[in-house]
C-alpha cells in the first residue's frame, strides 16, 4: 500500500506499508498534516493581520500613517511552506522639495515623513512666520512658508549742532 497526501499536506510516517502473512499491516499508520509556514513578521512601521500560518491561510500587511507599502499587501501560505510574493516593506512618504526662500535660505534635512526644514534670512532681513516645518503623512509640509522681510529702521535722530553722514 502506497500513501500520498493532498497538495498542502505533508505525510507523517512511512509512505509504504505491506500486508503480512498474519493479515496485519507493517509499520504505523501514517497521517497527513497541513503544511505550516513560518510565523509572519510585520514590517518595520507596519502591522500584519493573520488568523493562522498553515497552507492556504492568508495574511494582510498594512503600513502606519506616513508610510507606503512596497511589495505584496496580501500573502498566502503555499504548499511548500513558504509565503507567496515578496517580503513587503513600509517606506516613508516623501514631500515635495521646498522652494528657496527669497532673501534667505531653506535647509531641508529630509524630504521623507517626519523630515524637517529650517529657514534663515539674509543679513538685514527678519523672518516672518514659522522657522521650522515638518513633512506630514499626507505628503504636505506643516505650516505656511515664511517670508524674509526687509528690516526698515526709522530715520536716525538728529544731532544738535551736527549732521548725519550717509555712507
Automatic annotation (TrEMBL):
<keyword id="KW-0732">Signal</keyword>
<dbReference type="InterPro" id="IPR035976">
    <property type="entry name" value="Sushi/SCR/CCP_sf"/>
</dbReference>
<protein>
    <submittedName>
        <fullName>Sushi, von Willebrand factor type A, EGF and pentraxin domain-containing protein 1</fullName>
    </submittedName>
</protein>
<keyword id="KW-0677">Repeat</keyword>
<keyword id="KW-1015">Disulfide bond</keyword>
<keyword id="KW-0325">Glycoprotein</keyword>
<feature type="domain" description="Sushi">
    <location>
        <begin position="1"/>
        <end position="34"/>
    </location>
</feature>
<feature type="disulfide bond">
    <location>
        <begin position="5"/>
        <end position="32"/>
    </location>
</feature>
<dbReference type="Pfam" id="PF00084">
    <property type="entry name" value="Sushi"/>
</dbReference>
<feature type="disulfide bond">
    <location>
        <begin position="63"/>
        <end position="90"/>
    </location>
</feature>
<feature type="domain" description="Sushi">
    <location>
        <begin position="93"/>
        <end position="150"/>
    </location>
</feature>
<dbReference type="InterPro" id="IPR000436">
    <property type="entry name" value="Sushi_SCR_CCP_dom"/>
</dbReference>
<feature type="domain" description="Sushi">
    <location>
        <begin position="35"/>
        <end position="92"/>
    </location>
</feature>
<keyword id="KW-0768">Sushi</keyword>
<feature type="disulfide bond">
    <location>
        <begin position="121"/>
        <end position="148"/>
    </location>
</feature>
